[in-house]
Amino acid sequence: MKWLVFVVFLWPVAAAANDWAALDQPGAIAIMRHALAPGTGDPAGFELGDCSTQRILNDAGRQQARSIGDAFRARGIVFDHVFTGQWCRTRETAELLGLGPVTEAPALNSFFGDVSTRDSQTQATRALIEDQRGRVFLVTHQVNISALTGEFTRSGEVLVIRAEAGGIEVLGSILIEP
C-alpha cells in the first residue's frame, strides 16, 4: 500500500481587515511603505537626486498610491504633517496620496544599502515622531519600518503606530490593494 503525504506550509499573512479605528487612538501615527516599485533595493551607483538611476513606482504603484489617498479622504481622515524620505519612490508616493503638503525627512531614507546607519536613522525617526503635534503620516521603506516596529510591511501597507516610553506600539494596519 502506498501512502500519499501532503505537506502544508502556512505562511504568515497579515490580517485582511483594515483597522481604520486605530487612527482614532491617542498618539496614533500612520507610517507607510512606499507603493509598488518592482525590484529590490536600487541599482549600483544610483543617485539620490536622479530618479532615472533609482527603482521607481510603476503604473500599478502610482494607482495604488492614489487609491490609498482616496480611501483616507473618503473617510474624512486628514493629516497635519506628511513626511517622506528623499528617494523618488517615497516622495512620489507621498505626493500621489494627496493628503497634504509633503516635507522631506532624511531620517526616512532607506538604509538598505548601508545598514551602519540603521540605529541612528531609527532614533532620528523616533525623534521626528515624538516632536510632532497633530495627525502625522510618514512614507518610508520596509527596512525603516521593520527597524522601528519589528513588523514587515507590504508595498503600500500603512501601519498605525504610537510612540511609547519603551518603544513603538503597533495599533493596526491598513492595506489597500492596487
How would you concisely characterize the structure shown here?
27% of the residues lie in helices and 18% in strands.
Give the secondary structure arrangement, pairings included.
Elements: E1 29-33, H1 59-74, E2 81-84, H2 88-97, E3 102-104, H3 118-131, E4 136-140, H4 142-149, E5 158-164, E6 167-174
Parallel strand pairs: 1-4, 2-3, 2-4
Antiparallel strand pairs: 1-5, 5-6
Helix pairs in contact: 1-2
List keywords for this structure.
178 residues; alpha/beta; Rossmann fold; 4 helices; disordered N terminus
Could you characterize the architecture of this molecule?
This protein is of the alpha/beta class and 178 residues long. It has a single domain, classed as Phosphoglycerate mutase-like (Rossmann fold, 3-Layer(aba) Sandwich), CATH 3.40.50.1240. Helix content is 27%, strand content 18%. It is built from four helices and six strands, in the order E-H-E-H-E-H-E-H-E-E. It has a six-stranded mixed β-sheet, with helices on both faces. A hairpin with a 2-residue loop joins strand 5 and strand 6. The longest helix is centred in the middle third of the chain and has 16 residues, at 59-74. It is globular. The model is unreliable at 1-16 (pLDDT under 50).
Number of helices: 4
As for the number of domains, it is 1
Indicate the CATH class. Alpha Beta
Query: What is the number of beta strands?
Result: 6
Roughly what fraction of the amino acids lie in strands? 15-25%
Q: Could you tell me how far the N terminus lies from the C terminus, measured between alpha carbons in angstroms?
A: 49 Å
CATH superfamily annotation: Phosphoglycerate mutase-like
Strand count, sense and barrel status of the largest sheet are: 6 strands, mixed
What letter string, H or E per element, gives the SSE order?
EHEHEHEHEE
Report low-confidence residues grouped into runs of 5 or more.
1-16
Coarse structural class: alpha/beta
Radius of gyration: 17 Å
Mean pLDDT over the full residue set: 89
Shape: globular
